[in-house]
């Protein structure tokens, strides 16, 4: 089945690397006009260049409601409307409970949950019937992994938000779903404060823990996002689609 998003417009938050970039790329390849956001101006420009002419890069801090509102205004100016919102921006730091500072706690919650919540709120006026919201949750919302308490809690909040907003927005004809990645080979492993050797060791351990005995690729999550964003999933809302090689459920 070929999915076409011709004449559709989409916003992908956190779209410069990893899963976010892969999602933006799949949407562009399906014919959508895509706006991506990120905090680093150089990465935003590089990602937009790689995506090509249908893509627009915007520098924005997902922790700032004002910045999110500004992105929504730019989407209105550039596109007139939004058909698809992929609320993907997220971070993680690995730390046991005794090591978690208030600043680290607040930052993860602000980016992973608060940012997604307000991205939806600010973009809703741009969305009509048939619109689709896809959030990036995580398999860790259902697994107990040491040193991942804050990240896991933030993603459990995202999963809860999907259920609530799916019910709340159904009368407006807007679907809300999420993808729950498991071990995906993205730069996030190198950003959680581990040495290169420890990051590689973690990749290997998580790959072996899956039924498929390998890491997933960002493009595999991107294709799941494409499905949920498209009319191919017209009767799907409130779902959390696991893309984890069987890590969680088997």
From TrEMBL:
Ketoreductase domain boundaries: 8-182
Superkingdom: Bacteria
Recorded GO MF terms: oxidoreductase activity, acting on the CH-OH group of donors, NAD or NADP as acceptor
Pfam name, any one: adh_short_C2
Database matches in SMART domains: PKS_KR
UniProt cross-references to NCBIfam families, sorted A to Z: PRK07231.1 (NF005559)
Homology family: Belongs to the short-chain dehydrogenases/reductases (SDR) family.
Protein name listed in UniProt: Short-chain dehydrogenase
Species the sequence originates in: Hypericibacter adhaerens
